[in-house]
Write a structure and sequence with these properties.
Structural class: alpha+beta
Number of domains: 1
Shape: elongated
Number of strands: 3
Helix content: 25-40%
Strand content: 25-35%
Strand order of the largest sheet: 1-2-3
Order of helices and strands: EHEE
């Protein structure tokens, strides 16, 4: 299964964060690997001018 992680320019630590997200998704989606060939994950910071954890968006 191919997992592609996309982040916007406002997500800090893009490469390390992307690797962590990919590892989690590989583990969770492992049981579907015979049926799913590709997953795209888009992570963005909805309001980058303010800090906080609740302003992140994940779209699969």
């Amino acid at each position: 299964m191919q997992i592609q992680i996309n982040t916007d320019k406002n997500v800090a630590g893009r490469e390390a964060f992307s690797d962590q997200v990919k590892d989690v998704h590989e583990h969770v989606l492992k049981r579907f690997s015979e049926h799913v060939t590709r997953v795209e994950v888009h992570i963005s910071d909805e309001n980058s001018d303010k800090s906080g954890i609740s302003d992140k968006r994940c779209l699969m």
